[in-house]
Amino acid sequence: MLAAGNPLSAAFWSSAENVLHLIDDGDATVGDVRRWLEATGTEPNGIIGLHVWDDASERSQLAAEMHVRLVGHLEEKLVAGDTDPDLLVIGDPGAQRAYLEIQERWMTSALPDGRVPMDALLDEKDEEFLAEWDAADAESLTTLESLLTRAGDRPLPAVDLSKATSRLRQLITGSGWPAELLIECGGIDPKNMPSDDAELWLTLAAGVASPVGTDDWTPGELDDAAELDEGLADDEELSETDSAIAAICAIDHFDWLAVTSVLATGGTGTPASAADLAGYVRDFDPDDLADDLDEEDEDEDEETDADEDDGEITAVDAEELDFDDYEDDEEFDELGMESLFLPVTSLWQVLGAIDEEDRLTPLGWWGLPEAMRRVWTPPED
């Protein structure tokens, strides 16, 4: 370290001793160790802008390259005296702010080859997220197809559909709730709605599960309403529409599959209040569902063989149902889940998918599974 021109100081080595004692006593946190590493002036912050560094073993080739390049840049700044480890190690706010600014400046500046590290890393994360999302869509669609095979025919109630869409067309051309929320979820133009009733209804129902948004709605890509609040300026308030959409966006594939599995197989009259839906998520076990579907498949070998020849999906093997990424070791927050489904059930009532007693209607039994099929089916090229 002397040869490298960075022997560090007595203050730093004293802090190293303290951290090592904490580790030896089992009292050290990940944050303690990371703060100590960052105090060397050569370890990048764990979060820089919108980018979060993965653990070294989990970094992609691009992330590993950029991390090494940034470390090299920080070492140069340390040698030049632009960073003071003694101030970093005592948590000096000014030194920490300056250290982060050095990293942000490098991350947002073009490299000799033209790449901007921040842009390149965020683009890669976006691609990874979209690939994972597409895989979850495909997995959910496969399971849904099997569920609908088990549910049998679900007739389209033409009269109910006509009445519902007639009412919806009037609502959407109005103002306030629920017009604004329906428009944002479905991504439709009130002046150019689909003329086909089934197309309009399914577009709106699919939007309730996967909001499309319109060109002037840009709350940001956030996981839930709490994060959306954090993303707004202190003097801004979250609108009712944005709050509802943020809640809906926090409902993941696992949750929707749990709900749809009960509604599709339960049929007309199935309880479908927000509390009921949260209970379905709580009790959902994809492994049990896979076993049930697998047993039905074995009981219908001849029909299954014929369907496979036609390229149709009729059952799901237990191995194919892998929702480990959506399971959480924490205690299930049933009230929190119920709050997420409140705007969903409100819109379902408007659509006529559930009645005033929050029970599934014939229109909902036909349409809600069809809407989820639309949500999870990849767009045609």
Can you characterise this structure?
With 381 residues, the protein is mainly alpha-helical. The protein is 61% helix and 1% strand. The protein is built from 17 helices and two strands. The protein has a two-stranded antiparallel ribbon. A hairpin with a 2-residue loop joins strand 1 and strand 2. Helix 12 packs across helix 13. It is elongated. Residues 216-235 and 306-329 have low confidence and may be disordered.
Structural class: mainly alpha
Order of helices and strands: HHEEHHHHHHHHHHHHHHH
State the end-to-end distance. Answer: 57 Å
- Work out the helicity level: 55-70%
Q: How many strands, what sense, and barrel or not for the largest sheet?
A: 2 strands, antiparallel
- Could you give the count of β-strands? 2
Low-confidence stretches: 216-235, 306-329
Shape by Cα distribution: elongated
Instruction: Report the radius of gyration as a whole number of Å.
Output: 27 Å
Number of helix segments? 17
Oligomer: single chain
Strands across the major sheet, in which order?
A: 1-2
Measured by DSSP, the beta-strand proportion falls in: under 5%
Give the integer mean of the pLDDT values: 81
Structure in a nutshell:
The chain is mainly α. It is built from 17 helices and two strands.
Question: What descriptive keywords fit this protein?
Answer:
2 strands; mainly alpha; 381 residues; single chain
